[in-house]
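Ticket #4471: structure export looks truncated?
Reporter: QA, pipeline team
Priority: medium

Steps to reproduce: submit the single chain below to the structure queue and open the exported record.
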Amino acid sequence: MTVSLILPCYNPPPGWEKTVYNSFRLFSGKVSGETELVVVLDGENVAITHDSLDYLRNNLEEVNIIQYKENKGKGYAIRQGVKVAKGDIIVYTDVDFPYTIESMLEIHETLAHNNADVAVGVKDEAYYAHVPFVRRLISRYLRVLIRVFLSMPITDTQCGLKGFQKQVSPLFLNTTVNRYLFDLEFIRNCFTTSKFRVKAIPVSLNENVHFRSMNYRILFSESVSFVKLLFSKKR
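Actual output as written to the record:
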């Protein structure tokens, strides 16, 4: 089976292209079948240079780079990647590859062996030891809200590692949230509007992961998105 790995990219750290190259090579070398890399540049910024893009194009034949000027949000970026993905299996994660290759392979193997249509990474307890207090508090609070108001069997919707079979793509593309809560909208739709099999997969962080400071303006906008999802009609 072929695999598409989608990476949304906005304001990446210096040297990001080498992290992408090394991690993708490690991942693709451990999966059977052909792999492609889809990098979605979600707006222009100083870290994304011609040299960094040329590095990827010159070293990876199987890379597809999508670029647009205005930052639209992670959900929007991944939808652009899904639109062009050719793989039978689609996996997405963050450009700094925060989760272990073993976790990525577990997502892939679950789908490759047809044990699920959608594989949702869920963070283990060790994850919260690495997370700043405010992020940890927000994450746990969101899980409580999901359990209370949406009654979903999976409450950890915001883990940045997920995958699905190609036939799930239309449902994913039907999401409307452009920023972080697109994950919640997608998983909600999986449980309420489809018969796709969804499986939670425990995943682990890499040891060298660094978390960015919280943008509270985005936190406010995502709170609005949550309320909209709560009262929206089932799609």
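Status: closed, not a bug. The export was complete when the record was re-opened. Leaving a note from the reviewer for reference: The first strand starts at residue 3 and ends at 9.
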